[in-house]
Write a structure and sequence with these properties.
Blueprint: E1 3-8, H1 12-23, E2 27-32, H2 35-45, E3 49-53, H3 61-69, E4 76-81, H4 86-94, E5 99-102, H5 107-136, E6 139-140, E7 143-144, H6 148-161, E8 167-170, H7 177-186, E9 195-199, H8 205-213, E10 214-215, E11 227-228, H9 230-233, E12 238-242, H10 249-261, E13 263-265, E14 272-274, E15 278-283, H11 287-292, H12 298-304, E16 307-310, H13 321-335, H14 345-353, H15 359-373, H16 386-391, H17 402-408, H18 412-430, H19 435-442, H20 446-455
Parallel strand pairs: 1-2, 1-3, 3-4, 4-5, 8-15, 8-16, 9-12, 12-15
Antiparallel strand pairs: 6-7, 10-11, 13-14
Helix pairs in contact: 6-7, 13-15, 18-19, 19-20
């Protein structure tokens, strides 16, 4: 069936003619000869399109129009009248009608207007779904994820952004540390200045000082002209020191001096330069341990780490994976002009179950690769690297395929919650209800799993809570 139409007309012959014409097109036709019957049909069947006669026996169809247009999911109303005029057309459109037909109308004209109405209704539903999906998709600037750990990150960003304190961002490689730094800058008082980034692990030690502080012509072999350093370029803005844990002790001392008195000298110069720059740094190393081992200066660590933001690995925020797949799938489909949508059910199970040791960077690259290689509108296992599909554990070997079909038809937030419940339930079943072992299997802390079990209402089913 192509859709449901309610015909409200007090003439039985008119209703019969419309029904005969439109049933041949595959529509389901409902009939009402007065507004009382129309109200009952609307409540029972929720048609997508209503053909409404203006003049009924003792009623006016226009009086019923506001009742239709004010519904939560209103139908498209096509008004029919034997007294069609430009004035009446304007009136009904202003009152919320989709279109109007002047009686007597041609059958082909009726079919065209009705067909256009259903296309418009379908488009409206798609737009509504997309808006709802976007409203439920928790984003924070360019950061994506609605999990509790990410909400904590967003809260910290909001608190530190409008201050000038130094921030240290920690987390595994690929978790998005630079994206967090950029979001802090974008919301900060220094947002009108430059955001300048330097990777302290990506260049030889002898060059990093030149990159940070700049140099004068002739300062060393190959210095053929003056060059401004990152501190100078970031004046009145933000300097992001990525992989700060790989910086040498000599360079650490010079960075500490800048933080203390806000001055520095270019290599080969005795002139002091004042800079007003906010420092945000990041590392995937344990700097507190490095301080204990005397390979990182304690005084610099405490200057850099006024506020620490720790980014959780993807395995500890699995509820965000579906949202990230959805986001990057759309992004790269647009970029590469591909009509690729979401992964197939089988592929989605593999991606959701994978541990993602490379975190968001790895997931992003995998989805980009899949979109580029996809030959159809779906991403299949053929486009997923073997190391992911072969290492991924099946969540439940006995799971019926219809489960994932049903999951993909649900609202985005509901689908994520349902998958999360199923995933945790499966892990608890595999460990016999042992929360400690299940937490290790999932890759999250035991306390986090306990909280999640209560949140998802699994407490009564899994009451075993033992350490061994």
């Amino acid at each position: 069936m192509r859709g449901t139409i309610l015909v409200i007309d007090d003439e039985s012959s008119a209703r019969y003619g419309i029904r005969r014409a439109l049933e041949k097109e595959g529509y389901t036709i409902l009939e009402a000869e007065n507004l009382t019957e129309a109200e009952k049909e609307m409540a029972a069947n929720s048609p997508q399109v209503v053909l409404l006669d203006v003049r009924l026996a003792k009623e006016s169809g226009l009086d019923f129009l506001p009742n239709l247009t004010s519904l939560p999911n209103p139908p498209l109303v096509i008004v029919m009248t034997a007294h069609g005029s430009e004035k009446l057309a304007v009136e009904v459109i202003k009152k919320g009608a989709y279109n109007y037909l002047a009686k007597p109308f041609d059958i082909e004209e009726l079919r065209i207007v009705v067909g256009n109405a259903f296309e418009t209704y379908s488009l409206r539903q798609e737009n509504s779904t997309l808006r709802q999906e976007l409203s439920q998709s928790t984003t924070f600037g360019n950061l994506i994820g609605s999990s509790k750990p990410m909400r904590g990150v967003y809260s910290l960003i909001e608190k530190v952004a409008q201050t000038n304190v130094s921030v240290l961002i920690t987390g595994e490689s690929g978790t998005g540390k630079e994206m967090v730094a950029r979001e802090i800058h974008r919301r900060s008082l220094a947002r009108t200045g430059q955001f300048v980034a330097i990777n302290c692990a990506a260049m030889p030690e002898q060059l990093i000082e030149s990159e940070l502080f700049g140099h004068e012509k002739g300062a060393f072999t190959g210095a053929n002209s003056r060059r401004l350093g990152k501190f100078e370029a970031a004046d009145k803005g933000t300097l992001f020191l990525d992989e700060i844990g790989d910086m040498s002790l000599v360079t650490q001392a010079k960075v500490l001096r800048i933080l203390e008195d806000k001055t520095f000298q270019r290599l080969g110069s005795n002139e002091s330069i004042t800079t007003d720059v906010r420092i945000i740094s990041a590392t995937n190393k344990d700097l507190e341990k490095a301080v204990d081992q005397n390979i990182f200066r304690g005084d610099l660590y405490y200057r850099l780490c006024v506020v620490k933001i720790n980014l959780p690995p993807l395995r500890e925020r699995k509820e965000d994976i579906l949202e990230l797949i959805h986001h990057y799938g759309k992004t790269y489909a647009i970029l590469y002009k591909k009509e690729v949508k979401m992964p197939s059910n089988e592929t989605l199970k593999v991606l959701l179950d994978y541990s993602w040791p490379g975190n968001i960077r790895q997931l992003k690259n995998v989805i980009e690769r899949a979109v580029v290689l996809a030959d159809s509108r779906e991403i299949t296992l053929n486009e997923i690297p073997d190391e992911i599909s072969s290492k991924s554990e099946k969540i439940n070997q006995n799971m019926e395929p219809s489960y994932f079909n049903d999951l993909l038809l649900k609202e985005f937030s509901e689908a994520k919650k349902e998958f999360e419940r199923m995933y945790i339930e499966n892990c608890l079943t595999r460990t016999g209800g042992n929360i400690t072992q299940a937490a290790a299997l999932i890759g999250i802390h035991r306390q986090s799993l306990q909280h999640k079990i209560k949140e998802l209402g699994l407490t009564k089913r899994f009451i075993i809570d033992r350490e061994d």
